[in-house]
Amino acid sequence: MERAIETRELIALRSLDTTIPGTFHRACDGGHPMYGNGNSRERIGVLFLNSLTPTRAARGDSSVSWADSFAELGYPSFRIDLPGFGDSATDPPADLLNFVNLGGYTRIACAVIKALVAQYHLSGVVLFGLCAGAVSAIYTAADSKECLGLILLDPYFHLPQANGSTVFNRLMNQIPPGALRRGIRGIVHGTRAVRERQLRKQLPETSNFRLLDRWKTVMSSGLPIIMFTAPAIKQKGVEFDYVDYLRTQLSDESQVEIKAVQGADHTFANCLGRSVVRQQTEEWLNTHFPPVTSRV
Amino acid sequence: MPEQARYFPVPGAHLYTVLHHTPDPVARVLFVGPFASERHFSYHPWVRWARYLAARQIEVLRYDYRGVGESTGAFGQMTFEEWDEDVRLLAEWLNRRSPGVPLILHGLEMGALLAGRAFEGGIGDSLLLWAPPATANQALRSSLLLWAGLEQMWESSNNRTSASEYIRQLEQGSSIEIQGYEWSSRLWCDSFHVHLPAAMRNESPSCKLYGRPVRIVNLNRHAAPLVKPHLMYHELRDLSHIYSTNFEWIGSLLAQPTEA
């Protein structure tokens, strides 16, 4: 039994009195993995944060393959199980989604970044997050000096339907299932869609304003950001086009690239999504954070 | 309880393993988990079950199949023979660790099938099967049907591909992608020939045949997300009744006098 193999090492980071299990993908230099923590010196690391998928491998082990690719390019990459995920010692919070939406993982993620930067002598990290992981990444980037870039996959900027909808649903449940119920639902949803299209520039009341505020901070600071969206997937009950809204908010200082990946599913775990994300992220990393080579 | 994550070398790859260590264990259990696409759905209750046993002086080793999760290797190139070999090599390692302590093989869904085959080959002192399929194809087919059904929800009616169409593609030699895993045509064809040993369809005949205890538990949807359907995440669902009844069975084995 071994803790490390040629390209990877199993790690256990101590942060904020808890142990964060993870996998370190060694950066390659000249096609060979580098050994020893000191060899990461001055390199940018890529840190993967958990989405709602229970493990750090993510759906279809997509995060494993991305981390392997980035490490081969020369970026030490780290996948971790935050508390409540995978092999971490604790259960997830009872309301995990709400916890994530309110930035619940910010503190521990910032502490993990500090620990990685110190232990592996990194010049900083780029955060990689899918869906809920992207939400955590935005919150963390706003609070972490060591976060130097963001790779976001299908972030969402809305909160689950508020109480009004619950009341609506309760009322609807009084109507027996069938055509009448479907008809009323269709009319209400259609009306909401029309209203939100008309108020295109105005954020809906279900927006995650706290997250949008952090996004504004991060985006206006000039942090390099690449965002992938899967336009084929329409999130249920979300009519407002947040990506379009974010585009209108970009300033001269912003370094935000938004890429729509046609044919990808929301997890980007399918072959097409996976390869587009890998290829375009590699180009983006090369542009903003050229790999450090030890050979002259 | 200390948990130790390590890589275990197998031919051409390294398996990701987690040993739930316990001092002076009264038994050891090798967890053979569900198939690739089910792994992450059942991960939480599977880990909780390992911790439940470790807290009761039963050491557990769980792992990821070759080519899956944290283990290395290309999933699309793996075969059932290699996954059978994973079980055998890990069981041997556990046995070498402490030969006097009984070894229980424990499998879930596809893992139950692999554990059952290893047990038939003489490995393990007892066998605990959760939701075993009759064949590997049955396990693959149910995953494919569930996935294809979910896919339909996202696609327009023009782009929809039915489960039978995916099966036709596999049978005609093409690979398809399920939940991010590439299923080769060979995997599909081989799966028809990977059977749960016939005697293991019922407990009594298998206990008689093998002369070692066997327990078969058919889990239904109330055990989700341990088993399908995994339509929603239910990480915190209380499955303690499953844990406690199965622990009682393990306890009863340990209470039995051993033959001289």
Q: Give the ordered list of helices and strands of chain A.
A: EEEEEHEHHEHEHHHEHEH
Instruction: Give the strand line-up of the largest sheet of chain B.
Output: 1-2-4-3-5-6-9
Based on secondary structure, the structural category of chain A is alpha/beta
Strand percentage of chain A lies at 15-25%
Task: Explain this structure.
- The complex is a heterodimer of chains A (296) and B (260).
- Chain A is an alpha/beta fold.
- In chain A, 39% of the residues lie in helices and 19% in strands.
- In chain A, strands 1-2-6-5-7-8-9-10 form an eight-stranded mixed beta sheet, sandwiched between helices. A two-stranded antiparallel ribbon of chain A has the order 3-4.
- In chain A, helix 1 (62-73) runs parallel beside helix 9 and helix 4 packs across helix 7.
- The mean pLDDT of chain A is 87.
- Chain B has helices at residues 36-54, 80-97, 110-120, 136-154, 163-171, 185-191, 203-210, 240-255, and strands at residues 3-10, 13-20, 27-32, 58-63, 103-108, 126-130, 176-178, 181-183, 214-217.
- Chain B has a seven-stranded mixed beta sheet, sandwiched between helices. A two-stranded antiparallel sheet of chain B has the order 7-8.
- In chain B, strand 3, helix 1 and strand 4 form a beta-alpha-beta unit.
- In chain B, helix 2 (80-97) packs across helix 3.
- The chains are: A alpha/beta (296), B alpha/beta (260).
- The A-B interface holds A 1-5, 8, 10, 12, 21, 23, 52-62, 64, 86-87, 89, 91-92, 94, 96, 232-233, 265, 267, 269-271, 274 and B 3-9, 14, 16-19, 37, 39-41, 43-44, 47-48, 68-70, 72, 75, 93, 154, 177, 179-182, 233, 235-236.
Short description:
Chain A has 296 residues and is an alpha/beta fold. Helices cover 39% and strands 19% of the residues of chain A.
Pick out its properties.
heterodimer, A: 296 residues, alpha/beta, eight-stranded mixed beta sheet, two-stranded antiparallel sheet, 19% strand, globular, B: 260 residues, 8 helices
